[in-house]
Amino acid sequence: MVYQHWNKYRNEYLASVAATLSVFMVVTTNAWSSPALPKLLSEDSPVPMTADEGSWMVAIQAIGAVFGPVIAALTVDHIGRKLTLLGTVLPVIIGWILIGVGDRVEYLYVARFLFGVSYGTVYSVSPIYLGEIASDAIRGSAGTLITVLAKLGFLAMYSVGPYLEYRTLAWISMVGPGLFVVCFIWMPETPFHRLARNDDVSAEKCLSWLRRSEKVSEELIAMKASVLISKEERGSVMELFASAYRNNMRILLILVFSMQMTGLLAILGYAQTIFEKISTNLEPEEMSIVLGAVQMVAVIFPAVLVDRMGRRPLLLLSTAGTTLGLLMCSIYFAIDDGGGNHGWIAFVSLMLYIVAYGLGLATVSFAILSEIFPKNIRAYATAAFAMLSALIVFGVAKMFQIALDEVGPYLPFAIFGICGAVSWLLIYLYIPETKGRTLDEIQRIVRGKSVR
Hints:
Layout: H1 2-31, H2 33-40, H3 51-75, H4 81-87, H5 89-101, H6 105-133, H7 139-160, H8 166-172, H9 175-184, H10 191-196, H11 200-211, H12 217-232, H13 246-260, H14 264-269, H15 271-275, H16 284-298, H17 300-305, H18 311-335, H19 343-359, H20 364-369, H21 375-406, H22 410-430, H23 439-446
Helix pairs in contact: 1-6, 1-7, 1-9, 3-6, 3-21, 4-6, 5-6, 5-8, 6-7, 6-21, 7-16, 13-21, 13-22, 16-19, 18-19, 18-22
C-alpha cells in the first residue's frame, strides 16, 4: 500500500521536496545567529559588537522579511512561482559573502537584511507552489514539508555551526542555495500558472508529469474553470478586507498569532544563549544539537498524520503542549537561584515545547494557509501572513534580549505561555476541519456553508 501511494504521487513529492529546499536555504540563515552570537560577543570576536548590537543583528532579519512578501506579490503571478523561488538564491549568496569578508557590524546588518528578504519571499511563495501542484489526497502532507525542511535547516546549522570557525561557517553555508538550485531548476511550473498565462499545452505537460498519467484532461478542465473564475474575479490586496473573506482573514490572524507569539523563532535564534543559563551535564552546544534533532523528529509525524487525524486535533494538541512547556520553563527560571542542579527540568520543558510546536503549529498551519484562500487572492493572503509574521518576529526578537538582560528569562517564557493558552482557545473556536476536502469545498466551509 505504501509502495502504491509512493508510485502514484512520486513526482509530486519530488517537486515538493525540491521546492522546499528553498526553505532549508533560508532557515539556515535564521539559525545562524544561535552559534554565531556567542562568538561575536566573546573577547576574541571576529566582529566586535555589544549585546545591544547583537540583538539588532538577530532582529533585523525580520525587517528584511517584511519586504519579501511585497516582492512575491509583484512577481508570483507575472514571472511565475518557480522563477520567483529561484530568484531568492541571490540575496542569500550575497549575504553569506558579506559575512565571510565583513569586519564591521554594518556588514552583518546588511547580510541579515538580505537574508530576511529571501526568507519572506520563500515563505510567501512556497505554500502557493505546493498548494497548486499537490493532489487533494496529499496536499496536507506536501504542505508540512515546509516545516520538515525548516527543521532540517536548524539541525544542520546547530550541528556544524558551533564547531566551525566563524568565517568558514559562512562559506560552508553556501551549500544550501547550491543544493536548492541544482534540485529545483528541473521541476515544472504549476499548471495553474501556465493556464493563467493561456499556455494550455505546457499546463497539460506539467500536470501529466506531476500526476504520472496522460489522463489528466478532466482535472485540467476543472483547473481551467477555476483559473477563468479567478480572472473574472481578479483580486486585489483590498479584497482581503472584504466581508466575504472575513472568516478567512480571521483564520490567518489566528495562525500568525499562534505561531509567532509563542516565541519559537526568538527561542531558536537565542538557543545557545538560553542554554548557557541552564545547568545540566550537557554543554550549550550539545543541547542545541539535541534541540535540532528533536525538532527534526517532531515534525515528521504531522507529515504522516495531517491527512489522517485532521488539522484541528493536531493544532489543539500542539498548542496545549506548547503552553505547558513554556510555563514550566518560566517557573524554572523564576525559582532557579543558580545553586541547584535542576536544569534538566528546563531542558525537558524546552524539548516538550519543541515537540508540541512541531506537531501542529509549525506544520499544519502552512497546510491550512495553502487551502483557505481562493486563487484570486491567495498570493496577497500569503504575503499578508508573511509580513505580519515578520513584524511580530522583529518585536519579539528585539524585546527577548532586553527581557533576558533586564528582568530574566522567566518573563518572556511566561508571556509566550499565556499566548499559547489564548491560541488554543482561538483555534478551538474558529478554525474548521479541512481534511480531505477540495479547495472549493474548503471555501464553502470557511464561509460557514455546510458541505456533505
